[in-house]
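Hey, quick one: can you model this chain's 3D structure?
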Amino acid sequence: MKKTALVIMAAGIGSRFGGGIKQLAKLGPNGEIIIDYSIHDALEAGFNKIIFIIRKDIEADFKEVIGDRISKIADVEYAFQSLDDLPEGFSVPEGRKKPWGTGQAILAARKLIDCPFAVINADDFYGAEGFRRVHEYLVNSCDETNSVLDLCMAGYVLGNTLSENGAVTRGVCSVDGDGNLTDVNETFEIIKKDGIVTGQDEQGNSVALTEDDVVSMNMWGLTPQFVKALEVRFPEFLKGAEGNLKAEYLLPQVVGELVKEGNATVKVLKTNDKWFGVTYAEDKEYVQAALKELTDKGVYKEKLFG
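Sure thing. Here's the predicted structure for all 306 residues.
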């Protein structure tokens, strides 16, 4: 079978493992964390390798809590995101503390990525369907020889990604008649009230939405050629970000630019799975109940990797 990898962006996990670190909250009925479910679903879908993107200062703790356990059931590699991993001629601006964003996170793994790959956030529960559909596309449909980058993404139904405990931010997608992405609009303060879903655009204007709108939850199907495009564009981003200590090189923005330029196509693979995330403290109890229900229904075995 064609080689594929799952890249998990986990550099945002804090250095104090245990209480308060939402990515490591024990949410499953047997103490599973959200990353466990993502890895389980990815391996079941056929992904061959797991690449964790973390920070060097949490390496030992990360391996103890997660990595060493997963390395017993899968091929595991590590990449390290750091502020000073910059192109020649650039240096970390004085006072910069914020990471450079998800685009630079992928660049941290550039030497390990030698095959088509899916990328996800460490703290999101995606469900099995997204992994299956992205893997199927990467293996059976993705044309790596095309000069126009052939990419894909899992498209989630907005109504399946809302929190009952407050507003959320989502990338609302525009999709053409062939199922290709034409635009992603970052939409803020999305909330459902009295059956009506609304949000705000970047200027703070009210936006009318529907529960059936397709949104990106940062599950992308990408290729090594895309990583090269990320690398080529990074210096221009850094030049444009000069003086902005919080500017981030974000994956969706780069994908969107490539699409608008005609240098990439992105097939939107719709999934009806329910997305879970612990955005608010109150979400934890809901997610625990949902994962228990999935286990009780037999969607997941009592022992995930048993």
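One thing worth noting: The first helix runs from residue 34 to 45.
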